[in-house]
Amino acid sequence: MELGFTFMILAVLIIAIWVIFELRRLKHKVFAIFLIALVLFFYASTSIAFREQTINFKSQEGITSASKIYFAWLGSAFSNVKLITTNAIKMEWSTQNSSVGE
Fold this sequence. Notes:
By secondary structure, the chain is mostly helical. The chain has helices spanning 2-49, 60-90. It has 2 domains: 1-49; 54-90, no CATH class.
């Protein structure tokens, strides 16, 4: 009886230690995935925003111009998402099917 109880306590301790390490590793994985997604979003958005622009990144004026273009594009993208979301909310999403000719 005592030997089984000791093994059960050891098993619970081993599982608890394993869960603690996995949660710690999961936190780092989530942060790493977030950083990767952020870098990919920045790369994709800058390549879209500067697609038809010729910008000189070697001068202060070029960097200022690039930041203005990027943040204007980013603001426009967010306002477009907001517009699409509000239009989707305003739509009638009833479960009734009706014909076009009615």
